[in-house]
Amino acid sequence: MLKIALGTSNPHKLEEINDMIQEVHPDSVEFVLVEGEFDPIENGKTFEENSYIKAAEAAKIMGIPALADDTGLCVDALDGRPGIYSARYALDQKSKISKLLNEMKDVEQENRKAHFVCTMTLVAPNGEKLFSNTGRIDGYIDTKPSGEHGFGYDPLFFIPDLNKTMAEMTLKEKNTLSHRARALRPMIEWIKSNLAD
To answer: Per CATH, the architecture of 2-194 is what?
Structure first.
């Protein structure tokens, strides 16, 4: 089975991605966390640059191909913020949600459009970029958090087509419709066609 390092320190992300690949191509690829110290400096100006920085660092440490993503929430009324700074927008999930609600408190419903972006980049141990792909899902910023699933901004991100927030989606819905799923599926197909046996 092909092993690919996942450039993250988030075990939830590892579990989510391994679940998705098992659904599509069982027993072909396994993603593993980086062993040892993994603390890349995300100083890129785009989601793709930051995903490359993380993947290149993970590939170098592990000596195998590595995949990393950079994900963010882009809010139209805030000129695309928090964007690439989504993870650093505030200290923890609770304060991120409070800060976003506070910034959006005077914004009318029709102007609360937002989208989640996830860019994934696959990098070889020598630093060569092998493949990159971006997924996106559109929605609105709700006026209060709803739902127990997911993390980050999921409880505020309302998807009109489903009439629920990202945090109210089932795992199956999330694995089909989320920005991460939309970035990952073409990535999995590329890996299966080009790297896996």
So the answer is: Alpha-Beta Complex (3.90)
